[in-house]
From TrEMBL:
This enzyme's EC code(s): 1.3.3.15
GO biological process: heme biosynthetic process
Family: Belongs to the protoporphyrinogen/coproporphyrinogen oxidase family. Coproporphyrinogen III oxidase subfamily.
Protein name, as recorded: Coproporphyrinogen III oxidase
Gene field: hemG
NCBIfam families in UniProt: proto_IX_ox
Keyword Flavoprotein: yes
Organism: Micromonospora deserti
Enzyme class label: oxidoreductase
Length: 469
């Protein structure tokens, strides 16, 4: 009789936890699952804290409700699997703004991550280049081609559309710049449409039509009580042994499986397992892969990351616009690149005493020194810049919190998807029981990370010779 499988999940972020839950659901009964998390907390960039007596997100704040085909997202499916569906809440204010020439202007509708599907709608914030997006007689992208988002949009619609719309949108999500980021990885639906359509506006419309959304259907959701409840529920449902403050320093092949070297150099623990889900950032993965899968290590080790800081202020009865928040183009010269009016956007957080929570995101790729300012300096600068954008001094905060996420947001340059595919193919050929998962490979956002972890779990089940339950 075969002994139960032993599977290690290295990395306790949402990708790793989703892998652990899928293994528990689909692997043979009795499978031993252990999650190794280097830090003292699970969840990665999902972290709910408390400020002024109420929960607030110090990391990701929401998840997409629908998948690219228009169905329910895998994040929502996981929430249901964990019995948390009754906690899903949606924004009560959805309109956001852009800072243009120092003033707030509503973000126009009909765009795809800022790329317009209707040029007239974006005229309030940016002037598209006249007659630039003409039909050249063939698709915008060739088969397998990838380009920087900024290069494509500048060539078709001009600089203002990139600088005032697309760049701040991508900056809000990736802390990167449109001129550097891969179209295929950051806007896969648009890239697919661009391989067929002859104009950029036509490609945007085709991508939007391919993912229909019922009128009024919510785009985003979160959980009452905070996203850390998702983390806790996933860890519990996985039935995994969770090892916090447990750094996996080395992986070596051993007896048809793997030997993990865990813990401090002077007193390491050696653990033998049958398979490993490696759900850690790309550079950490490359270090572990270097001696056993150099081709895969080279394929993922070059990925760079941006650092950001999230500054949350508790403000007594401020006068805030009825907006979910705003984005800031880099040309505006502000430290703040995005802000969320939490207690306006999320109705379930509104307080009868009028206390408001406002969170600002600071830090763009290549500006790490800005994120290294002191907490006091960051908070004071954010307070001052928010006051300037809103046109009136904000009241002094009664509480605040600075959350730094160093090296946290992947910067996907053109060709990223092909490099990852090649790395995975090389790893699969040499070591099928060692699988990569997470944002560094498949993209940011809770649904993408959940799917990445679930796919990794299925690959492990197949590699170990099981069809799953």
């Amino acid at each position: 009789m075969r002994a139960p499988w032993r599977v290690a999940v290295v990395g306790g972020g949402i990708a790793g936890l989703a892998a652990a839950v899928r293994l528990r659901d689909r692997a043979p009964a009795g499978t031993d699952i252990t999650v190794y998390e280097q830090s003292g907390a699970l969840g990665g960039k999902l972290r709910t804290g408390e400020l002024a007596g109420q929960p607030v997100e110090f990391g990701a704040e929401s998840f997409l409700m629908r998948d690219p085909a228009g169905g329910e997202s895998v994040a929502v499916a996981l929430v249901r699997r964990l019995g948390l569906a009754d906690r899903i809440v949606h924004p009560t204010v959805g309109q956001a703004a852009l800072v243009v020439d120092g003033e707030l202007r509503p973000i126009p509708g009909g765009t795809l991550v800022g790329v317009p599907g209707n040029l007239e709608k974006v005229a309030t914030v940016a002037r598209p280049a006249a007659d630039a997006d003409t039909d050249g007689g063939g698709p915008l992208l060739g088969p397998g081609e990838d380009v920087p988002v900024g290069a494509l949009v500048r060539a078709r619609l001009g600089d203002e559309v990139v600088d005032r719309l697309v760049d701040p949108m991508l900056g809000g999500v990736y802390a990167g710049r449109a001129d550097d980021l891969s179209l295929v990885t950051t806007m896969p639906a648009l890239a697919r449409a661009a391989r067929v359509e002859h104009t950029l506006v036509g490609a945007v419309r085709a991508a939007q039509a391919a993912a229909p959304r019922a009128p009024g259907a919510p785009v985003f959701g979160t959980l009452a009580g905070g996203l850390s409840t998702l983390v806790e529920a996933a860890a519990a449902a996985s039935g995994a042994t969770v090892r916090r403050d447990a750094t996996v320093r080395e992986l070596t092949p051993a007896g048809g499986g793997w030997r993990l070297t865990v813990g401090p150099t002077r007193d390491p623990e050696l653990v033998d397992v049958d398979a490993v889900v490696l759900a850690v950032p790309a550079r950490a993965a490359a270090r572990l892969l270097g001696g056993i899968a150099p081709e895969a290590a080279a394929g993922v080790g070059g990925l760079d990351y941006a650092s950001v800081a999230l500054v949350t202020l508790a403000l007594p009865e401020p006068r805030l616009p009825e907006l979910s928040g705003f984005l800031v183009p880099s040309a505006e010269g502000l430290l703040v690149k995005a802000a969320t009016f939490f207690t306006t956007k999320w109705g379930h957080l509104r307080r009868p005493d009028g206390l408001a929570l406002v969170r600002a995101s600071v830090g763009r790729y290549g500006e790490e020194r800005q994120v290294q300012r002191t907490d006091e300096d960051l908070s004071a600068t954010v307070h001052r810049e928010l006051s300037a954008v809103l046109g009136a001094p904000l009241p002094a905060p009664v509480g605040g919190h600075v959350q730094r996420w160093g090296g946290s947001l992947p910067q996907y340059t053109p060709g990223h998807a092909d490099r990852v595919a090649a790395a995975r193919a090389a790893l699969r050929a040499a070591h099928p029981t060692l699988v990569l998962a997470g944002a560094g490979y498949d993209g940011v956002g809770i649904p993408v990370c959940v799917r990445s972890g679930q796919t990794a779990a299925e690959e492990i089940i197949t590699a170990l010779g099981g069809s799953g339950r």
